[in-house]
């Protein structure tokens, strides 16, 4: 099981679809392009990775064949328990899979929801593109940075 990484006591919870299929030498759950792109954006807006707790819809590394919808429904119970226990001030869903699962709406998408706050299940929530989508489609980078500026502004406001 991979519950998450970074600061478990952070007031900002970032939700991704699943942990990476590989680990780094320290056993960290998400690596390479996802971590690098996320860190770049976070640092660009003056935040630190320690300001975040990064968790996943799926709590284990993906396998080749599995019932994705059923597995996500099961794993959402675990995410709900994490949220109840950690009580983050707000949630950021990265990528359409995380958005659709967290919002419980298969029609929800980042493109439509980004740039504003939404009350989702009692949580102040926003969305941004998945870091790997940003790496694969460089035209999304400016939107990704705008989203993190938006997030950082709210974070600074909540910090006083």
From TrEMBL:
It is an enzyme of class 3 (hydrolase). It comes from Tigheibacillus halophilus. Its EC number is 3.2.2.27. This is Uracil-DNA glycosylase. Keywords: 4Fe-4S, DNA damage, DNA repair, Glycosidase, Hydrolase, Iron, Iron-sulfur, Metal-binding. SUPFAM superfamilies: Uracil-DNA glycosylase-like (SSF52141). The lineage of its organism: Bacteria, Bacillati, Bacillota, Bacilli, Bacillales. InterPro entries: UDG_Type-4/5, Uracil-DNA_glycosylase-like, Uracil-DNA_glycosylase-like_sf. It holds the Pfam family UDG. Residues 3-149 form the Uracil-DNA glycosylase-like domain. GO terms for molecular function: uracil DNA N-glycosylase activity. The keyword Magnesium does not apply. The keyword DNA-binding does not apply.
């Amino acid at each position: 099981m991979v519950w998450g990484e970074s600061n478990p006591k952070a007031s900002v919870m970032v939700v991704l679809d699943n942990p990476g299929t590989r680990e780094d030498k320290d056993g960290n759950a998400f690596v390479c392009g996802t971590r690098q792109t996320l860190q770049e954006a976070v640092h660009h807006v003056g935040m630190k990775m320690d300001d975040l707790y990064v968790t996943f819809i799926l709590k284990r590394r993906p396998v080749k064949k599995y019932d994705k919808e059923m597995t996500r429904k099961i794993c959402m119970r675990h995410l709900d328990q994490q949220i109840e226990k950690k009580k983050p001030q707000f949630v950021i869903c990265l990528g359409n899979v995380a958005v659709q699962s967290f919002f419980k709406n298969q029609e929800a998408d980042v493109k439509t929801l980004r740039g504003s706050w939404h009350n989702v299940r009692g949580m102040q929530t926003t969305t941004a593109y998945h870091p790997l989508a940003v790496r694969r489609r460089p035209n999304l980078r400016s939107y990704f940075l705008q989203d993190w500026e938006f997030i950082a502004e709210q974070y600074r406001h909540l910090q006083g």
